[in-house]
């Protein structure tokens, strides 16, 4: 017996609902199976990506500036220049993901950036450091947006926030592991006549090369080619994907027209600008946390590295819990707003004239809000883009504009501002507040729009349209009662347009 009955493209229904022919337990077991085969590899990929990108902050404590003769703002330039090429290659990388297949493309870029990250530990000049950072940004650019889109190939909308959440848990673990590894590797200072910062970059870069090779054999390109799935499981997932609104065969193909629509949709721009604000906190805090902690107390370098670990651990645990709640209650915006406020309180404490212990508490609060506020919107936007072309462009655009903050973030934490770093904390607080206001507006506006759709105020806009035509509208059907964009729910009106009919919800 088939586990999933045939559905119309507008049939709706909660994934995992109890309609006839639908085996809920089978689906739960299958999702757990997907998790076992997908989540470990994507977490490792992003962990090493983030580690290789920000470990320059740990290397700074072990003689990088002194050995390379950096002065003035040269360290900040070396940190930020990575994002120049990162931004340039992010959207193009996302658009070629399917063409080169995820397995080959992700494995290749991982292998290459691992080599670059390792060789960075051997540079002897400022110019060579800049060249390595530029190349690292170009190659790493395709990973996070690619993984975000890759997850949509396998998981439903109701499952996406938690799985994207695992990526941000990886970022938190990278921060924690980076501090711990730097603490341990720092004791190698002087081995083979090399300073500790070189060993940090080399030893943390080599595993990435090995992971790139393993990824080629580990990842599956799609549901249809996943060797770990039985034919019955593949058929179930294909049909399950077809149950989501506007998820037609045409919608899953790449169309340039869909890509263009991303840049004419004001909601994509709003999400992108908010991401810029929130990523200012991500890159400022992640790169300069060792520097911040060192400045607020009288600790040795090894102690500083150890003190970063609890902050990142709290951030990871918080995100996992909130991502589960977000998927369970199907709310994105509300949680993003709440945790923006928590990070703002943390920066307020860092700005206050308080003791070292109180300032360290502020670091915990910033970390607690950081990954939730950064991560949930990255599930919110693609959930509202059922057509593949627009989804890949929108995710890439959101991340590109957001990551542009990585160019700015190093220059708000200048050495001259030590030990309080008033400007850095104040700018970060303001940018988080800016992002929170945008998310609050989006939450209010979309909820109000959904209320109009629920009342049937715009039923007349689809008069005379066939179900097939409506299905192909994708998220553009937000002007009709058939696709309601919301921060927490997508409503499908599965009825004849001239009669009242039941509304079903499909989660975002």
Automatic annotation (TrEMBL):
Residues 1-21 are annotated as: Disordered. It is a multi-pass membrane protein. The keyword Transport applies. The chain crosses the membrane at residues 38-55, 75-93, 105-128, 134-153, 165-185, 197-219, 269-292, 304-322, 334-352, 358-381, 393-414, 426-446. Keywords: Membrane, Transmembrane, Transmembrane helix, Transport. Residues 1-12 have a biased composition (Low complexity). Residues 38-450 form the Major facilitator superfamily (MFS) profile domain. SUPFAM superfamilies: MFS general substrate transporter (SSF103473). It is found in: Membrane. GO terms for molecular function: transmembrane transporter activity. InterPro entries: MFS, MFS_dom, MFS_trans_sf. This is MFS general substrate transporter. It comes from Morchella conica CCBAS932.
């Amino acid at each position: 017996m088939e586990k999933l009955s045939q559905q119309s493209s507008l049939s709706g229904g909660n994934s995992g609902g109890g309609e006839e022919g639908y085996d809920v337990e089978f689906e739960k077991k299958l999702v757990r199976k997907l998790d076992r085969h997908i989540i470990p590899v994507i977490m490792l990929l992003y962990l090493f990506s983030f580690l290789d990108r920000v470990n320059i902050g740990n290397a700074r404590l072990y003689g990088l500036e002194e050995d390379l003769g950096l002065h003035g703002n040269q360290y900040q330039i070396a940190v930020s220049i990575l994002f120049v090429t990162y931004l340039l290659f992010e959207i193009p990388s996302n658009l070629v993901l399917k063409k080169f297949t995820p397995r080959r493309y992700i494995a290749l870029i991982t292998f290459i950036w691992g080599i670059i990250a390792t060789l960075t530990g051997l540079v002897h000049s400022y110019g060579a450091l800049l060249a390595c950072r530029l190349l690292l940004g170009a190659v790493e650019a395709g990973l996070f947006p690619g993984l975000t889109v890759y997850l949509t190939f396998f998981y439903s909308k109701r499952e996406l926030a938690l799985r994207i959440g695992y990526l941000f848990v990886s970022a938190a673990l990278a921060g924690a592991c980076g501090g711990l590894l730097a603490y341990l590797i720092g004791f190698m200072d002087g081995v083979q006549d090399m300073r500790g910062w070189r060993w940090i970059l080399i030893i943390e870069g080599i595993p990435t090369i090995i992971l790139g090779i393993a990824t080629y054999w580990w990842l599956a390109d799609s549901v249809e080619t996943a060797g770990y799935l039985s034919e019955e499981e593949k058929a179930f997932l294909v049909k399950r994907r077809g149950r989501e609104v506007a998820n037609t065969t045409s919608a899953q193909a790449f169309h340039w027209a869909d890509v263009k629509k991303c840049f004419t949709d004001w909601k994509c721009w709003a999400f992108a600008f908010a991401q810029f604000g929130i990523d200012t906190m991500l890159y400022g805090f992640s790169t300069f946390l060792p520097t911040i902690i060192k400045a607020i107390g009288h600790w040795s370098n090894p102690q500083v590295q150890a003190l970063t670990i609890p902050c990142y651990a709290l951030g990871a645990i918080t995100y996992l819990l909130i991502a589960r709640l977000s998927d369970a209650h199907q709310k994105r915006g509300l949680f993003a707003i709440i945790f923006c406020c928590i990070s703002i309180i943390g920066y307020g404490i860092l700005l206050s004239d308080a003791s070292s212990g109180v300032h360290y508490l502020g670091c915990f609060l910033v970390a607690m809000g950081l990954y939730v506020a950064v991560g949930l919107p990255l599930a919110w936007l693609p959930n509202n883009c059922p057509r593949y072309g627009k989804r890949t462009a929108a995710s890439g655009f959101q991340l590109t504009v957001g990551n542009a903050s990585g160019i700015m973030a190093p220059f708000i934490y200048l050495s001259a501002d030590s030990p309080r770093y008033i400007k850095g904390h104040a700018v970060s607080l303001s940018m988080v507040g800016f992002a929170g206001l945008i998310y609050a507006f989006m939450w209010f506006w979309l909820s109000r729009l959904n209320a109009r759709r629920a009342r049937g105020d715009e039923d007349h806009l689809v008069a005379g349209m066939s179900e097939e035509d409506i299905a192909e509208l994708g998220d553009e059907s937000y002007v009709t009662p058939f696709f309601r964009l919301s921060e927490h729910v997508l409503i499908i009106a599965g009825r004849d347009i001239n009669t009242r009919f039941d509304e079903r919800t499909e989660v975002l």
